[in-house]
Amino acid sequence: MRDEPLVLGIETSCDETGVGIVRGHTLLADALASSVDEHARFGGVVPEVASRAHLEALVPTIDRALGEAGLTIGDIDAIAVTAGPGLAGALLVGVAGAKGLALAAEKPVYGVNHLAAHVAVDTLEHGPLPGPAIALLVSGGHSSLLRVEDLATGVRPLGGTIDDAAGEAFDKVARLLGMPFPGGPPIDRAAREGTVTVSFPRGLTAARDMERHRFDFSFSGLKTAVARWVEARERDGQPVPVNDVAASFQEAVCDVLVTKAIDACRTEGVDILVIGGGVAANSRLRAMATERAAAHGIAVRIPRPKLCTDNGAMVAALGAHLVAAGASPSALDFPADSAMPLTLVGV
Ligand code: KG4
Ligand code: ZN
Questions:
Q1: Is the CB–ligand 1 distance for residue 281 below 6 Å?
Q2: Helical axes 283-294 vs 184-192, angle rounded to 10°
Q3: Could you give the CA distance from residue 346 to residue 260 in angstroms, rounded to a whole number?
Q4: Please, what are the domains in the chain?
Q5: Which phi-psi region, left, alpha or beta, contains residue 31 (left: φ > 0; alpha: ψ -120 to 50)?
Q6: CA of 207 to the centre of ligand 2 (A)
Q7: Closest protein CA for atom 26 of ligand 1
Q8: How far is the CA of 311 from the centre of ligand 2 (A)?
Q9: In this predicted model, what pLDDT tens digit does every residue of 283-314 receive, in sequence order?
Q10: Is-above-0.70 flag for pTM?
């Protein structure tokens, strides 16, 4: 077992072709090619377009990452790749590419879970987890609260979304406010210019929800409430105060996420909260979580925004953690698993 394995990570689960290189907990390169502009006019990611873009971008992005780190593939100890969850065709490009590279360069390959990688990437910013943590994972497809003992041995889900994921809610509300896809960044920007003037519903936070859905999330009612509010204004012929609606919507999402995450920490007796996934790039979520957790003696760890959204460094970080923990590499016939469960860290 080596303490500081040199790992190249490949991410192709959605619309970003990411290749990162890490040595232990140190980030050496983080190359990204995005097909987001090709999907924007469709209002969401088109799987076939994403797969084709990965195919074109993968080899140049690997070359760019190696160049950035001043390394050749021969220097690398292991290759890690997102095995799932994600878009089947998009995942296949990364998995097949990683296997080909592993065979040609005679390196071990680790198929890893994209969601666990969103949590692992924080080690590149804040070092290894000193103890058990609660992870709040908020991306385009997932909103989950997890208890993490050690990422190499698995995570325990405490709750998750029962309808829309947090990022999905940002994307849908942005669309109805006439903002581009993905909706998180434009809502974040608009909200900074606005004021919280409307109190939108906080899903699954009522006393009656505590028994069955204490750590679960629901954002579809919030999305509908925003749509109804905007429609009512338009019906009355009044202008829609877009920045205020964005700020009010964002406040409702962040309030629910932070309230439940702190509740999970307190219930589990854990004083570290890690927040990961694309929505963790949100400026209000970062500020609110840090401020409210401090009042309870909980330390919040959130990677810098660029590491929150999909990237290759997160895959490399999880791969390096598995190598250092002595985990066995994946068998070369491992599949891309679009529905890979949260509890499976690697395959
Ligand atoms: O983790 P990610 O890059 O991809 C998935 O694994 O899904 O997350 C993408 C999601 C999108 O829904 C996007 O709107 C959201 O993250 N997002 C944000 C922000 N930046 C990205 N949501 C809120 N505020 C942001 N600043
Ligand atoms: Zn993601």
A1: yes
A2: 70
A3: 27
A4: 6-121+311-324 (3.30.420.40), 130-303 (3.30.420.40)
A5: beta
A6: 31
A7: 282
A8: 8
A9: 999 999 999 999 999 999 999 999 999 999 99
A10: yes
